């Protein structure tokens, strides 16, 4: 057996590789529509911000040993360090892009000349405001930005229900592509909190945050806790809506792969809720007696579900959206080799990590796991063309699939990847410099 | 596009059929957010109090005694070892062994004079789990004035029978120190030594050659009670 290790470094590599590759492909795809360029850049930079944030988390984990339960960072140990400051600010920037993503994908809802400037300025202003606020308050109110997810949530939920109902009403299979991609974006943004849906319905998640506050110095601020609760509630209700929608659609139209994915996450959330109930004594121990460790089985369950969903499956999900919805130009021959490399690389990294995870609780000798990994590699190499083809050949953008629903596209010449890279690269540099400066000045901590 | 005539941003989000389910979904979200927020705020306050304050707790001790006695007659210049097995002590539910007091009493009743004999007593350090090096423990004593010798051994760490005030985040942590197991297990070993004294060293018929010594062992057991200092 091997020791359970964090998936954060793997997630950092996967997110960064995918993010940089996406931005690189977008930069080389001249013929792509302005909308796809914007969405590609948003997704690419979300992954880059997440990847950089995970690198900082890895530093906090391996240098300071500050990773507590549920991948939370022990603030008592690392509050005020460069890695802690940069991690939170980068995560905050990724949140800002996730907040604005539903207004550009799958449909560009605002569809005005100024919406692109709104996106860029919104992220920059929000980044500046939250950076100033967090630095001045020593991250007391970190996670308050979760409140900003509400408008995007309303958009996605409304769109999902609208298209699933219209599909069933008109028997128009094309519309399924819209409801699926909306569901995937919802999972991409709220995936982790979806796996806590039953705990949120039972309103026991607060006890877990109480434990984290006592154990690892999580901020005791109404704004922070309100933000956390908002995100948890949005995830839980998104899961319930998706599950109800897919159950209804399965009854009306038939079961689909996305329906299966939704039901799997629903069941995971259900089991996780029961598991959370079972460990409530341990959770409350920090408050009532003294902190007890979670049972190993509970930790393994968490690693395989919520953590794996965030760190391993979310990048794959974004990759699927990028390729299957033709956001990056998959038809161009010169992009294909890069796409092939990304697909195989990501599938292999995730497969090997899953194997390592299995080794953490099953006494499988290294030789057998190596052989299993070799089999996985063989399958992926053998089926590489088929996997990539199935992703790319069926790919079509939303505008191509349902042109009658697409709003008239506003073509921005200035909506170039260069502009996005310049702005968000500037945001990244700003965050790193500010973190370095404030840590060096001893303002934090 | 079926019945959707012109597409606007609004019509991408809601149609006549989807209006009710969407409103229900959003209503459920609002209700759940409100309910859970109330819970969160409640726990937020409790946690804030918990982490920002370390209250004082008053600890008092209910005490019960268990006594054992041994009466031994020692000859002049004799050293004798007595053992008291702590396993014989009946410890009430919830109580722990706190202190052991040993009183050694000699009775000068033989001989023609009332000259006191010299008696010495030692508690011998052995496997008995106790605070052998505590300043509260008095392991040796000697007397030649017919007064009892008082020896004591602190068994439970920091226990002296007096109430104390401690700072702790909760009742459990305040009590934790007083809920340890394993103290007071073993055998109490007492060495007695007698040196008979005659008046001016004169005992012509050799009558005063021994002494009856009584050893009283009092085992003090305690149970901690806790109350929050307001």
Short characterization:
The complex is a heterodimer of chains A (445) and B (230). By secondary structure, chain A is mostly helical. Chain A has helices spanning 8-28, 34-64, 75-78, 82-100, 115-136, 149-170, 176-194, 197-201, 205-216, 222-252, 257-278, 280-288, 296-324, 333-361, 366-382, 384-393, 398-401, 417-441.
Q: Which features does this protein show?
A:
heterodimer; B: 230 residues; alpha+beta; Jelly Rolls; five-stranded antiparallel beta sheet; four-stranded antiparallel beta sheet; 3 helices; 9 strands; 21% helix; 38% strand; rod-shaped
Tally the beta strands of chain B. 9
> What is the arithmetic mean of pLDDT of chain B?
86
Q: Specify Rg of chain B, calculated over alpha carbons.
A: 36 Å
What is the class of the largest domain in chain B in the CATH system? Mainly Beta
Mean pLDDT over the residues of chain A? 86
* Tally of contiguous helical segments of chain B: 3
3D structure, described in words:
- The complex is a heterodimer of chains A (445) and B (230).
- With 445 residues, chain A is mainly alpha-helical.
- Chain A has a domain at 146-294.
- Chain A contains 18 helices and no strands.
- Chain A has helices at residues 8-28, 34-64, 75-78, 82-100, 115-136, 149-170, 176-194, 197-201, 205-216, 222-252, 257-278, 280-288, 296-324, 333-361, 366-382, 384-393, 398-401, 417-441.
- Chain B has two domains: 9-52; 56-228, Jelly Rolls, CATH 2.60.120.
- Chain B has three helices and nine strands.
- Chain B has helices spanning 9-13, 16-52, 171-176, and strands at residues 56-75, 79-85, 96-107, 118-124, 140-143, 149-154, 164-167, 187-195, 210-228.
- In chain B, strands 6-3-9-1-7 form a five-stranded antiparallel β-sheet.
- The longest helix of chain B has 37 residues, at 16-52.
- The model of chain B has no long low-confidence stretch (mean pLDDT 86).
- Classes of the chains: A mainly alpha (445), B alpha+beta (230).
- The interface between A and B is large, with 49 and 40 residues.
């Amino acid at each position: 057996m091997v020791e359970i290790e964090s998936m954060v470094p793997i997630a950092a590599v996967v997110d960064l590789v995918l993010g940089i590759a996406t931005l690189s492909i977008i930069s080389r795809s001249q013929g792509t529509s302005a909308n796809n360029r914007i969405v590609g850049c948003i997704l690419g930079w979300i992954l880059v911000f997440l990847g950089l944030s995970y690198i900082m988390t890895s530093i906090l984990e391996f240098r300071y040993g500050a990773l507590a339960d549920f991948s939370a960072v022990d603030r008592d140990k690392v509050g005020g360090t460069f890695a802690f400051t940069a991690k939170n600010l980068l995560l905050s920037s990724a949140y800002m892009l996730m907040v604005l993503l539903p207004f550009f994908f799958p449909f560009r809802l605002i569809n005005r000349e100024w919406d692109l400037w709104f996106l860029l300025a919104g992220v920059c202003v929000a980044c500046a405001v939250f950076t100033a606020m967090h630095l001045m308050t020593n991250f007391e109110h970190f996670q308050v930005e979760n409140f900003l997810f509400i408008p995007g949530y309303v958009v996605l939920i409304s769109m999902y229900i609208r298209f699933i109902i219209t599909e069933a009403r008109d028997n128009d299979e094309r519309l399924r592509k819209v409801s699926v991609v909306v569901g995937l974006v919802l999972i991409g943004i709220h995936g982790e909190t979806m796996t806590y849906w039953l705990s949120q319905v039972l309103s026991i998640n607060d006890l877990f945050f109480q434990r984290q506050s006592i154990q690892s110095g999580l901020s005791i601020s109404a704004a922070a806790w309100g933000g956390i609760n908002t995100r948890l509630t949005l995830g839980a209700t998104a899961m319930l809506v998706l599950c109800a929608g897919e159950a209804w659609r399965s009854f009306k139209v038939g079961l689909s792969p996305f329906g299966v994915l939704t039901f799997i996450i629903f069941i995971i959330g259900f089991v996780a809720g029961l598991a959370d109930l079972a460990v409530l004594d341990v959770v409350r121990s920090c408050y009532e007696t003294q902190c007890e460790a979670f049972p190993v089985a509970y930790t393994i369950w968490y690693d395989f579900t919520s953590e794996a969903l965030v760190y391993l499956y979310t990048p794959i999900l974004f990759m699927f959206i990028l390729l299957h919805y033709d956001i990056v130009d998959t038809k161009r021959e010169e992009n294909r080799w890069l796409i092939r490399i990304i697909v195989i690389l990501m599938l292999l990294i995730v497969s090997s990590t899953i194997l390592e995870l299995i080794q953490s609780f099953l006494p499988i000798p290294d030789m057998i796991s190596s052989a299993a990994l070799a089999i996985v590699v063989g399958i992926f190499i053998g089926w590489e063309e088929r996997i990539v083809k199935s992703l790319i050949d069926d790919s079509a953008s939303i505008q191509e699939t349902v042109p009658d629903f697409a709003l008239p596209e506003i073509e921005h010449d200035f909506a170039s990847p260069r502009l996005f890279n310049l702005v968000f690269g500037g945001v990244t540099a700003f965050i790193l410099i500010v973190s370095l400066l404030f840590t060096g000045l001893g303002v934090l901590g | 596009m079926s019945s959707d005539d012109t597409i606007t941003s609004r019509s991408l989000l809601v149609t006549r059929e989807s209006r009710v389910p969407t409103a229900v979904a959003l209503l459920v979200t609002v209700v759940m957010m409100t309910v859970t927020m109330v819970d969160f705020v409640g726990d937020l306050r409790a946690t804030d109090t918990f982490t920002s304050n370390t209250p004082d707790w008053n600890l008092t001790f209910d005490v019960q005694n268990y006594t054992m006695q041994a009466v031994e007659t020692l000859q002049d210049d004799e050293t004798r070892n007595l053992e008291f097995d702590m396993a014989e002590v009946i410890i009430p539910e919830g109580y722990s062994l706190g202190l052991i007091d040993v009183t050694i009493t000699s009775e000068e009743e033989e001989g023609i004079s009332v000259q006191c004999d010299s008696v010495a007593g030692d508690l011998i350090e052995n496997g008995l789990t106790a605070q052998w090096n505590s300043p509260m423990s008095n392991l040796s004593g000697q007397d030649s004035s017919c007064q009892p010798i008082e020896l004591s051994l602190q068994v439970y760490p920091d226990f002296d029978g007096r109430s104390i005030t401690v700072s702790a985040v909760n009742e459990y942590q305040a009590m934790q120190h007083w809920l340890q197991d394993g103290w007071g297990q073993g055998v109490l070993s007492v060495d007695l030594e007698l040196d008979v004294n005659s008046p001016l060293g004169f005992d012509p018929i050799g009558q005063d050659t021994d002494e009856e010594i009584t050893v009283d062992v009092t085992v003090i057991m305690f149970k901690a009670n806790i109350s929050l200092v307001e």
